[in-house]
Amino acid sequence: MSTQPSRVFVARLLGLDVFDPLGDRLGRLRDVVVLSRGTRGAPHVVGIVVEVPGKKRVFVPMTRITSIDQTQIICTGLVNLRRFEQRGAETLVVAEMFDRRVTLADGSGDATIEDIGMDQHRSKDWFVSKLFVRRGHSLSPLSRLRRNETMIIDWADAQQGARTEPQAATQFVATHEDLKPADFAEALQEMSDKRRLEVASELQDERLADVLQELPEDDQVEILSALDVERAADVLEEMDPDDAADLLAELPSAQAEELLQLMEPDEAEDVRRLLEYDEDTAGGLMTPVPVILPPEATVAEALAHVRREELSPALASSIFITRPPLETPTGRFLGVVHIQQLLRFPPPEPLGNLVDKNLEPLSDHAHISEVARTLATYDLNSLPVVDDAGRLVGAVTVDDVLDHLLPDDWRAHEDDAPVKKLGGRIG
């Protein structure tokens, strides 16, 4: 095996690229998997969790690791590309050990784990050896260690609390703040129910709303139901109205109504309107807050609106032109201006001159099959949805249709996983 450093700390490995011996990139390290050896023995490091292209997380055994340092990781042999699933005896270092409270064996107080050091023994096996901890409450008035002081201690110098004890998630959230909501949601799905709720509770309302929208419905319900009811209402307000409506539809009616009562009236009104539609209609799929402007607005104003960061690419592809009022349900719907048209005309040009009047809007009661057929026929990312009075009530996007047509477990669906040969032979 290649020359190894005497010790590596897990937090410094997070996000490192994992390569095969030929220099081809396999993916990026996201966590380390350990097995406990009882109350006294240091945990055995059995593998790493690697995020491969396609944002799927797979397990790579430590026996496949030929070199590991603070700049890169090299592995060899065969790697099963089946999605990683945690087994009962396994512990994820970043997801479950960071932020865990320990009691210092010398009786001087408690501390919180912020990082973990691991060493390779002569047997070539890796074991947890050190804990980087932040000092908590001191039990001894004679202790010279101050609260919030950090230190490195041996694994044996800390007494681990029970896994059922409440645990913070500050470190996990901080080390994963760069993840897109869908990738963060996938990381949550790998956790135990207890840890998933602890991490979700640590997130800011807006971040939690974005992550919830990427989770299966059962996980959404579990997390929202575990929150304080007032905070749950705040998170629903941060969600897209159509996603909030879908989530509330999965709750008991009394619980859903309580949350709607606690939401801001304007936010709750949008969600209530969506809940009135059957889920397989355009009204049940749509978002009630697309980009809406009057015909007098200019190209420059439209471009400023579609540049908003919170807009999805599908919603940013079209501007819907209506008479006032401009909040749904609007005044009379006039037509659509596509983003490509905005790029072909000067900034002062009125949008009324660019309207595509040939694109027929969908009825809010149109079946999803008609929605999908229309999107496919005209190669569109979004379509206007109107009521019987010709008022715009929302827009349905290709993303909305895909979410509805795909199986409920599509996020976790796994085809027969290939085995990738990374280089060399297993010998």
From TrEMBL:
SMART domains: CBS, MgtE_N. Residues 286-354, 355-413 form the CBS domain. It holds the Pfam family PRC. GO terms for cellular component: membrane. One of its GO terms (molecular function) is magnesium ion transmembrane transporter activity. This is Mg/Co/Ni transporter MgtE (Contains CBS domain). The lineage of its organism: Bacteria, Bacillati, Actinomycetota, Actinomycetes, Micrococcales.
